[in-house]
Amino acid sequence: MTTAHRASSALPASPVLPASPAPSDSRLAPGATAGTAPGAPSRRVRPSLGRQPRGGGPGAPLRLARTSRRARPSRRALLAGGAATAVGVALAACGSKGSGGSGSAGDTVTVVTHDSFSVPDELIDAFRADTGYALELVASGKSGELTNKLVLTKDAPLGDAFVGVDNTFASRILDEGVIDASAAVDLPEGADQYVIDDTPALTPIDFGEVCVNIDTAWFAEHGVTPPAAFEDLTGADYKDLFVAINPSTSSTGLAFLLATVGHFGTGEAGGFADYWKRLAANGMRIDEGWSDAYYTDFSGGGEGGAHPIVVSYSSSPAATLTENGSASTTAALLSTATRQVEYAGVLAGAANPDGARAFLTWMLSADVQSSIPETMYMYPVNPEVTLSEELRRFGATSDDPVVVPADDIAAHREAWLATWTEAVGA
Question: What 3 state SS string does the chain have?
């Protein structure tokens, strides 16, 4: 049985964030002009996506939804809006290199990233001015896909450094010898509490919290008491209302699966498998990725979805504000939160290890850490960094997130995924 537990001293304290104000009782999808309750304030969601909702509303049988073939912007790129910089644009002035190369040399640092990585242009320019190195960023999929590529190419690394492997895959990076374990850099005070297996060379950069989100306006309009905990989602009041995410195809979905492992345990009776069976029996929908779940099927996400409960992030309510920005029309259930920490490191065999270390130091600098909430909508590991006003008001983090130790994840991840697949009939 896993030794999962609620957060303790193993995790640093969350940034000091005031509790979110009570969300508004009305809502309006971005770009819509009708459908709100009389006199209700309109919703300001950044940005309007202009996609059409798919079928499969409440009452539809449980099924794995196909991901649209059309490219969908990532959670962080969407939430950050104009503040975020697309990777390709950001690199236009910094030189380029084929993604199939192995490492870099001279004045270029090649960094293998997840698809959502984004840093403002001016900071990239400052990095080159301060260090003499040009950054080349190679986007390589989501966290799991990035991890697989790093492992498969460890003998001929794709770059000098990486960023974006999260705690659900971090132990695999260490076990496979992907990083240069001697290439540690100084961490901000408090960030060392995120270090895994006493290996600070696997450098913590930022964190988010995956949790259940609810459309509070929907519940107010329908006169239904909103859920407050994991257990509530299996109740009759919430039949056909919940959208989960496939943990086999999404790091967000995997994080939520781990939250249920940590909360319910792995016993044959009453464990996480039983919980997922009850969710399936209660009409849960399963989407392949976060964007489909949040923006298409969640009623509070912007496209008129039919499900008012979804797996998302504790920061998400900061992007669903009323028109005047005084309240959020969604809320995060922090009792269901689990922390997702993202790491960076110098790749073993890097052609430019000095440049890679300079990149890690730069990622932990006050300027870059301060940009993370706006460009990637994650929380910086440096607790001294000032968060955006929206995150301070509406993006509270949990004081007691569910924690599953990295060693347990590494040892049991595949078995838990197989158990989940059997439980939901996928």
Answer: CCCCEECCCCCCCCCCCCCCCCCCCCCCCCCCCCCCCCCCCCEEECCCCCCCCCCCCCCCCCCECCCCCCCCCCHHHHHHHHHCCCHHHHCHHHCCCCCCCCCCCCCEEEEEECCCCCCCHHHHHHHHHHHCCEEEEEECCCHHHHHHHHHHCCCCCCCCEEEEEECCCHHHHHHCCCECCCCCCCCCCCHHHHCCCCCCCCEEEEEEEEEEEEEHHHHHHHCCCCCCCHHHHHCHHHCCCEEEECCCCCHHHHHHHHHHHHHHCCCCCCCHHHHHHHHHHCCCEEECCHHHHHHHHECCCCCCCCECEEEEECCHHHHEEECCCCCECEEEEEEEEEEEEEEEEEECCCCCHHHHHHHHHHHCCHHHHHHHHHHCCCEECCCCCCCCHHHHHHCCCCCCCEECCHHHHHHHHHHHHHHHHHHHCC
